[in-house]
Amino acid sequence: MELKSPDIAPIKPEERELARKVLEQTTLETELTERELRTANLRAEMGAFERRYLHFVGARYAELDELKARIAEQLASEQPDNDRAQQAARDARARASETKSAAGERAETAPRAFEASPEMKRMYRTVAKRIHPDLTSDREDRAIRQQLMSQANEAYEHGDEMQLARILTEYEHSPEAVRGEGPGVELVRVIRRISQMRSRLAEMEAELQELLRSDLFQLKSRLDEAQRVGRDVLQEMVAKVDEQIEQAQQRLTRPKAGGEPRII
After folding, report:
1. Which of the chain's termini has less CB crowding within 10 Å, N or C?
2. What is the rounded distance in angstroms from the CA atom of residue 125 to the CA atom of residue 127?
3. Nearest CA to 121 among 157, 81, 172?
4. Between 143 and 192, whose confidence is greater?
5. What global pTM score does this model have?
6. Residue 50 burial (C-beta neighbours within 10 Å; 0-12, 13-18, 19+)
7. pLDDT value at residue 9
8. Strand, helix or coil for residue 108
9. What are phi and psi of 255, to 5 degrees?
């Protein structure tokens, strides 16, 4: 008896194209995840550096500008008819207010530099690869993912690995994680996801370049380079401003011509 070979259904064109597009999507997902991680890492490092800079240097500049304002105001009070002295006092007070606002309140403890552990980076990659908003074409699902991705970025910046895990679990168990039906429909979804990811990659590259060109990043780079050769430029800046503060304090407390001491 002749055995018949089982019928094998031919692969449909849309199924073949879907397989090719899925492979392309997978490659872009990896690239997007790595770009997200690099950008998030840079934002976190710059944020931590800015907090440290304001804590150590910015607060001292605020103190120095306050002393300079008080010196200018003291001189203005001694010369009530001198318009230039009056204007100098107003300008100095405006600068002091601006510096104080920029520095904010000085914390009791020094902020720590940002450094993500390998486990944190792995968890962030997993979260970004699963819930990034550019990986869906569904409007409602995208809104949910945007909110969760924002929470993930915040958790990463604060080094909260457990929160990252909770965010991933929350999304994995949501009904929006379920996808349907048929190769033709899925092919359209994949094509749109690819288009969205390419647009997002271009946006992220622009954002990354903007961060790299910022004054804050340039300052951080100079301080990091100096630290690699054994210089602590941040502490050098602190020492320089402390010296200026001491000089300003001495000027405020120096006796006036009439012999009465000035009091801060």
Report:
1. N
2. 6
3. 157
4. 143
5. 0.64
6. middle
7. 66
8. coil
9. -60, 140
